[in-house]
Design a protein that fits this description.
The structure is a single chain. The chain is mainly α. It has one domain. Helix content is about 85%, strand content about 0%. The protein contains four helices and no strands. Helix 1 crosses helix 2, helix 1 packs antiparallel against helix 4 and helix 2 crosses helix 3. The longest helix has about 35 residues. It is elongated, with a radius of gyration of 16 Å. The termini are close together.
C-alpha cells in the first residue's frame, strides 16, 4: 500500500465529493430549508457547512482506503471502485438517511434525492480518484 498515493487519491475523491455536493445545493436547497423550518430549525449554518466539509474529506479518504484494500482481491479498478463506493454509500449515506425518514426528520422525496445523489458522487469520486492510485 502506497500511503502517499492513497492520501493523494483520497483528497482527490474528497474534492470530487465536495464538488458534487455543491452541485446538489441549488437543486434541493429550498426544499431543505422548508424541511428544516418545519422542525423549527434554521437553514444550514456556516458551522454546519464546515462540518460537512470535514465529513467529505473523511469520506474521500475512507473511500480510497477501502478501494486500495479491496484492489488485490478484485483486481480490476472499475469493479473495485464500484464495490468500495457501494459499501461506503450503504454505511454512510443509506443507513443514516433512512433513519432520518424513520424518525420523521426528513421528507421521503428529499431523502431519496440526497441518497441517490450520494451514490452518484461516491461513484464519480472513486472512479476518477482510482486513476491516481498505483502501487
Amino acid at each position: 500500500m502506497n500511503i502517499k498515493k492513497l492520501i493523494k487519491a483520497g483528497l482527490i475523491a474528497a474534492f470530487l465529493i465536495i464538488l458534487c455536493a455543491m452541485l446538489l445545493v441549488p437543486i434541493v436547497g429550498s426544499d431543505m430549508d422548508i424541511a428544516l423550518s418545519k422542525l423549527h430549525l434554521p437553514s444550514l449554518s456556516v458551522g454546519a457547512m464546515v462540518y460537512f466539509f470535514f465529513v467529505s474529506i473523511s469520506l474521500g479518504l475512507i473511500l480510497m482506503w477501502l478501494y486500495v484494500a479491496l484492489l488485490p482481491r478484485f483486481k480490476r479498478r472499475v469493479k473495485t471502485a464500484v464495490i468500495a463506493s457501494l459499501v461506503v454509500w450503504f454505511l454512510a449515506y443509506f443507513l443514516a438517511n433512512v433513519s432520518m425518514v424513520a424518525y420523521g426528520f426528513m421528507p421521503i422525496k428529499l431523502t431519496i434525492i440526497g441518497t441517490l445523489w450520494g451514490l452518484i458522487e461516491l461513484l464519480v469520486a472513486s472512479l476518477i480518484a482510482s486513476l491516481f492510485y498505483s502501487e
